[in-house]
Amino acid sequence: MTGSTRSPSSSTSSSTTRSTTGSPGTARPTVHGYPRQGRNRELKKAIEGYWKGAVGADALRDAAAELRRTHWRQLADAGIQEVPTGDFSYYDHVLDTSVMVGAIPARHRAAVAADALDGYFAMARGTQDVAPLEMTKWFDTNYHYLVPELGPDTVFSADSAQQVGALREALALGLAARPVLVGPITYLLLAKPAPGVAADFEPLTLLDRLLPVYAEVLADLLAAGAEWVQLDEPALVQDRTPAELNAAARAYRVLGALTDRPKLLVASYFDRLGEALPILAKAPVEGLALDFTGPAAANLDDLAAVGGLPGKRLLAGVVNGRNVWINDYEKSLSVLGTLLGLAGHVDVASSCSLLHVPLDATAERDIDPQIARWLAFARQKTAEIVTLARGLTRGTDTIAAELAANRADLASRAGSALTNDPAVRARAAAVTDGDARRSQPYAERAAAQRALLALPLLPTTTIGSFPQTTELRTARADLRAGRIDTAAYDARIETEIREVLSFQEKAGIDVLVHGEPERNDMVQYFAEQLTGYLATRHGWVQSYGTRYVRPPILAGDISRPEPMTVRWTRFAQSLTDRPVKGMLTGPVTMLAWSFVRDDQPLGDTARQVALALRDEVDDLEAAGSSVIQVDEPALRETLPLRADGRAAYLDWATEAFRLTVSGVRPATQIHTHMCYAEFGDIFQAIDDLDADVISLEAARSHMQVAGELATAGYPREVGPGVYDIHSPRIPGAAEAAALLRKGLEAIPAERLWVNPDCGLKTRGWPEARTSLENLVAAAREVRSTLPGSAS
User: Fold this and answer.
1) What number is the average pLDDT over the span 369-385?
2) By C-alpha distance, which of 566, 532, 538 is closest to 551?
3) How far apart are CA 372 and CA 15, in angstroms?
4) What is the pLDDT of residues 475-490, one digit of tens each?
5) What is the pLDDT, as a whole number, of residue 676?
6) Are the beta carbons of 714 and 748 closer than 8 angstroms?
7) pTM metric for this prediction
8) CA–CA separation, 354 vs 62, rounded Å?
9) Quick one: which of 1, 15, 84, 159 could link to 116 by a disulfide (CB 3.0–4.6 Å)?
10) How high is the pLDDT of residue 4?
């Protein structure tokens, strides 16, 4: 973070570096990236220790360097012949790119200048005085990136220290290495106008200003020993305008024409390249990396249609980097065999970075060994890539044993009773359109709900979870280890619920929650109680920063053997006269935040999950819940990247939500929640959910979504968040009130709720307590100014 590292003394000609292309006919195995956290989440612990002052900056850097070395050695020992560098990050690779190109927001420049590491974390998390960068989802994954803030006055400058440093570390270990960078087109297309910049400003207009900075970074990497550099352009798999496609063509004409650069490999993943494929195929770059899994399988025919890549390198992404199922070797070898005739040289790779899957399936001792053979995490996927490369290079006879075992494992999965439950399939097949519709229209339901709940204008609530204390985590660990029994654990949960309810009542919150102390994760908790799901012990995947989750594995047909949440919700309601929300995770999010089965259409799986959750909703209502929240934060992130697949997806996704909630009485108020996504593409779908109240992230985006909902004519109640829970800073009452007033400019008071952006699980009690007290104070202050309102 201290400027360009290029110097004449560090220059190394590409002719003297270790070749990473391989000899003709030799398919070399490689990956786009690797999980960052370490086997025991060492990176998370080191960073959070640094934030708390328990770990020094040098110790943090040493821990990170040791993790990088460990990961590279794992890859090399597995047979990966070209390791990626630059994919490691303390927080986020897009934020690292902003640092690399000098795009530091004005409000963070002083912090970065004073201490580069602290300034970096200030951009990611904010401070008490300075807001962080906005955070949103990385394409259709559950990984979150920090949104670059750009404007017409943005001045870029090269800072290649991190990229060059990582490359030198790998080369010093004697490894062939390929730096991986976010490409300039994707970087600009992911950016937003900086605060104070006109909303219609197009960051892509800065391309000609940015390309010289990329040129300088490429020259620095060449000087440090890079033979190849990978530039990731996943934004090009989305529908792009002619102007955006022309910008991509121009960018790679300019970068390709450079003489002081390594060989360039342009990568895309998550879907087919479509209109961008002929542009990149003709660009003066030495290679492409393409995804050939899922919807991106269409790249095979598309590549043939444009005449292939004669004389160029192709990284063939035939091993799915986003899901955990074993590869179908015979299918992949067929694809690879076709590709041999379409490119000058074919190497075998993952479809995308392995960042999106856990590290090692062999650590999962609790999964049935036969079922475990269906699974491949990052380390198993590297073995698959190596096996496929060997079969492609030396012939399938050399991998005959692996092929036979693979066929047996695939057959075992296809014929398992877990994946075929006749009762579940019959129930799903019997669903009618009427089963997914509320009995009365919204206007009639709203009147009944207001009469029953008698809430004030601008009612306050939270999204669901409260801080997970050390005592709670200890109790959960003690229960697993057998140090306490179920009765003692339940007593701890009851104590926590009492404390959460007491605080909310004293704070003056109108609609309460029980705080979810019994839940380890909003998806895993339910998955552990539904048939057809597998839970992992060590399957950690990065969601954002130091937040890691263990996505369950949706392996078979889904049903609910018994109630999952009713006991705790009923107990909480017994402690108060105020309404306590029943809290569930919705069917789309149960799919999106799991490793979903790939052997049937997603819509079929969603319907099974919806029916299981419908049973829970009905039981909550029968137990006395008058407000039930079914969270769907993943509705937007699961939206197909290309428009031609969206209508079908939204049809089954919205049907699944309605099927979950449509059995309740009109007076039962149904809430849903979404966070950290771009909602502009799905406003009609949000309406189609037919929820009575929706809460949305809005604090970091300065209440932008409220105006967008108003413009779209959204007719129901809305809770745009006024407290950014992904930052440690505590918003004052005046700040929350200002956001609330901005929300009132778009949404009338009788339809506006006041709440945080998201659940409070990741926050500590002191900050959560003060922030919620400020939130209630802001609501009361603004409410007092409204005609006819009584606080």
Assistant:
1) 97
2) 538
3) 45
4) 989 998 999 999 999 9
5) 58
6) no
7) 0.89
8) 23
9) 1
10) 43
As a whole number of angstroms, the distance between CA 776 and CA 127 comes to: 22
In three-state secondary structure terms, 513 is coil
144 forms beta bridges with 137
Classified as helix, coil or strand, 7 is coil
Q: Cα-Cα-Cα-Cα dihedral of 461, 464, 469, 472, to 10°?
A: 130
Q: Are the beta carbons of 731 and 771 closer than 8 angstroms? A: yes
Distance CA 273, CA 233 (A): 10
Q: Is 432 exposed, middle or buried (0-12, 13-18, 19+ CB in 10 A)?
A: exposed
Residues 6+ positions from 420 with CB-CB distance below 8 Å: 556, 557
What tokens appear for 769 in the block?
């307590």
Q: Return the pLDDT at 398.
A: 97
Helix axes of 93-100 and 116-125: crossing angle, nearest 10 degrees = 130
> How many angstroms separate the CA atoms of 137 and 57, rounded?
29
The pLDDT-based confidence of 11 (bands split at 50, 70, 90) is: very low
Name 628's Cβ contacts closer than 8 Å, sequence gap at least 6: 581, 582, 583, 584, 617, 620, 621, 661, 664, 668, 669, 670, 671
Tokens 């060997």 locate to 390
φ and ψ at residue 231, rounded to 5 degrees? -115, 110
The per-residue pLDDT for 703 is: 86
Q: Is the dihedral of CA 389, 393, 398, 403 positive or negative?
A: positive
For residue 159, what pLDDT is reported?
98
Structure tokens at 96: 């690292």
181 neighbors 213 (Cβ within 8 angstroms): no
What does the pLDDT look like over 271-299, one tens digit per residue? 999 999 999 999 999 999 999 999 999 99
Q: Quick one: which of 373, 380, 372 has its CA closest to 350?
A: 380
Q: Considering the chain, what is the average pLDDT of its residues?
A: 94
Handedness of CA 254, 148, 47, 353 (dihedral sign): negative
Q: 329-340 vs 400-414: helix axis angle to the nearest 10? A: 130
Q: Report residue 362 as tokens.
A: 């062999």
Question: Length of the chain, please?
Answer: 791
Neighbouring-strand partners of residue 374: none
Closest CA to 759 of 557, 576, 547: 547
End-to-end CA distance of the chain: 51
Could you give the angle at the alpha carbon of 400 between the alpha carbons of 397 and 403, nearest 5°?
Answer: 130
Q: What is the 3-state secondary structure (H, E, C) of 525-573?
A: HHHCCCEEEECCCCCCEEEECCEEECCCEEEEEEECCCCCCHHHHHHHH
| Beta-carbon contacts of residue 408 (< 8 Å; ≥ 6 apart) | none
Active site includes 514? no
**Cα(289)–Cα(494) distance, rounded to whole angstroms?**
53
Question: Do strands 263-267 and 228-232 pair parallel, antiparallel, or not at all (unpaired)?
Answer: parallel
pLDDT at residue 2 greater than cutoff 60:
no
Q: Which amino acid is at 294?
A: G
- At 636-659, the pLDDT tens digits run 888 999 999 999 999 999 999 999
Average pLDDT of span 116-125: 97
Residue 107's nearest CA partner among 86, 133, 82 is 133
H-helix or E-strand containing 419?
none
Question: pLDDT per residue over 147-158, tens digit each?
Answer: 999 999 999 999
What mean pLDDT comes out for the span 496-521?
96
231 vs 2, 3, 277, 289, 417, CA distance in Å? 22, 21, 15, 9, 44
Of 768, 682, 242, the residue nearest 504 (C-alpha): 768
Residue indicated by tokens 């300088």: 216
- Between CA 174 and CA 100 the distance in angstroms is 26
